[in-house]
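Hi, here's the filled form for the chain we discussed.

Project: internal
Contact: R.S.
Residues: 288
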Amino acid sequence: MADPAPPEAPQRVILIGEQRAVLRDAYHAFLTMRWSASVGLIALGFGGLNLVFALIYLEIGGIANARPGSLLDMLYFSVQTSATIGYGAMAPTTDLANAVVMIEATASLIVTALATGLVFAKFSRTTARVRFSDVAVVTPVDGVDTLVIRIGNERGNIIVGAQVRLVLSRLERTREGERYYRFHDLRLTRDFAPALSRSWTVMHVLDDTSPLRGFDAAQFTEWDAELILSVSGVDDTTMQPLHAIRSYETAHLRWGVKFATMISSQDGALVVDLGKFHEVEASTALPR
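And the returned structure, exactly as it came back:
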């Protein structure tokens, strides 16, 4: 049976009753939305602004060489004004029309400056392309059960000073009977690499000190638990900090398997087969 599609980040949280900063939230939403949506939003804003002024020109008149009562001509004139094209075929002829042109010119300058700043901020924003394995596996390593997750850098550059942290979030109950989620840092065999260029196998040994010692899928579900894996570092091309995050729930855990080998040598060259990045195969661990 096919594995369910893994979430790309920890479960979304809905806040009720918080005080929202509309402009800052809108800025954040713009930076995080897709490029197609961002460009569409800018185009929609430009079109909406010109339509508003076209309706104003239609109401007040005073535009030479425009067809009487033609919203389309007024829209053409508004676009030429806001874009500072100035073909000369249509022009304001009254003081009121000239005043509206001044207002539109000012508004278009502000909107253009805002759009330019937003596009630049989005374009210059460094994002990581870190690949996370679809599943986390529990398999013996040196004779001890170990939680293993595979990560890799999908770009051809290097993530300098790569730092990895793995955290267990699970539901617990206090002595007073209160339920709350507690975070447990899971100690890794290695949590730092000077450079991440290909792949990295993240391992947490399930020894006596591990909060996951002897756990199974039923217990993980009972805890309402998830594993949160984060990667941070510096992009060696832009020299900007970057990060990526991924969560694993019960449906993404596997026992009795290990990750397939994806690195081999051929004619003296190192071959990394990314097609095997998510593949697993039977291990010496007994299925649970």
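Let me know if anything looks off before we file it.
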